[in-house]
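Q&A log
Question type: sequence-to-structure
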Amino acid sequence: MTPSRRLIALIAISTFSMLSSEAFAEQSLYERNPDQGQVLVSIEPDQLEDDEVVEENEDVLEEDDWRVYLDLYGFLPLSTTGDITINGNTAPIDSSLADVLATVTGLFTGRASVEYGRLGFMAGIIYGTSSEDQSGTNSFDGEELHPAIDGLKLNSQSTTDFNQSVVDLALRYRLGAIEQPVMKTGDSTFIGFLGARVIDAGMDMDMSLSADVKVNGRTLTKKEIPELEKSASGSIDRTWVQPLLGMQATYAMSPEWQAFMRLDAGGFGLSGKKDLSGTAQVGLAYTVGNSAQLTLSWKYFGIEYAGYDSDNSYSNYQNGVNLGLRWFFP
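Response status: OK
Response body:
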């Protein structure tokens, strides 16, 4: 065979090999999609970014595995209202954030959860102590005086030392996606929980009452109406348990941003004439690194209690900003 014929043969063999490879590829494609022929797949850039971010955290997506969540947060109540009644003497509560910060002597708040599969357990604590001076005006039945006086008002000055611990213990069950710092856009999580809320409250109050009463232009003295000027003191120290029911939900607006909501209620009047507590919270969470989140939310917390056979009662309602830091341990 001459050199020219050899060259022509090599070119023919190479061309046949290329055509055979292309034909094999097309045949494989047609075998997989005989009715549609060639298929073009379009993937949005945002979807690629979401998938890449989630793939970096795919180790936490295993359903049958242990997960631990730890929350530390600070509650800044912009408004605190309520009252404390001891032995029939009532001291009002009406404090701004500045008042609360000035009177708080101790504070710790946190929550921890552990989950395996969809079942889990959660524990939370709110602990606070304060000391506060309050002044106000109380009504008094002047008909008991001699002579009787209608519409009598007493000026009150009270000092109240207060400590309270609220401990939540509950079983939880999750529906939807696993909670994690980075979630696919559109994923959501719903957690319901049922358990007990243990409340330990201690209050010491010293109150002084006084009035400036005039009859026929003359100011009555303490000896004439000793009921108008007296001092009162007392304390409440009680621990009680409330049934607790609640839920929390999370929605991923993007891989890094999540919106969340939390609601709970306890008591339902089972431990006293008044026995109720509740929380409402809604906010946003932003991912920091691979295992932490910063949270910012609005929170309301209220509690009411009055014993069955007592003149003592307590109510407290707070709402304000809640700042938190959350860690995930897959």
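Response note: Residues 283 and 297 are 4 Å apart (CA to CA).
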